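The methods section describes the discrete structure representation at length, but only in general terms. Each protein is reduced to its one-letter sequence and a matching series of backbone shape codes. I believe one specimen quoted in the main text would settle the matter. An entry of this sort, consisting of the sequence and the corresponding backbone structure tokens, reads as follows.
***
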Amino acid sequence: MKDETLPDLFAGMTVEVPRVAGVDEVGRGPLAGPVYAAAVILDPNARIDGLKDSKLLRARERERLCALIEARASAVALGFACVEEIDRLNILRASLLAMQRAVAGLALVPQVVYVDGRERPSLEMPTVAVIGGDAIIAAISAASIVAKVHRDREMDRLSELYPGYGFDIHKGYATRTHLEALELLGPTPQHRQSFAPVRRRTEDAPGMFD
């Protein structure tokens, strides 16, 4: 039986949940285009069903979820590193730079940042790397979706600027179609010269944009 003479030490107290940002990047592997990152702070009072690793979603579903995330999340921001930065820094460091820019762009300052993968960007707040985080942490899943949708849109735009490469289809990845176009047409300014297939093609013959 509770002793009514003892004070309730926890009366009137609330437990504060840390403001958590999820961060993920998209575009480390492609031969062309920037690497994108997104940072998302979800609103615990605005549930979004269906969040998962962006690679497991169809394009239409990613677009739908991206719109919901941008409408309902407490804060969303994008960051990217351009091709010149990728070639100058290397793809890993450029990816971390994109993540830093995404977190810096948030309208709210997170208290903790969860990042998908093994590597962590250098941030002022505590940062936790979570392998497979885009499958188990909702904020990272949301970030992966936002980053993927916006990078895909950028590759669609580049496809219009550089017809014949199929950027709107393969998004810059080293598909057979892309490699054949690279061999036939040579690299564009959006191709990563530090990546071996592009470097070999440039050394063999200059591209049409040189």
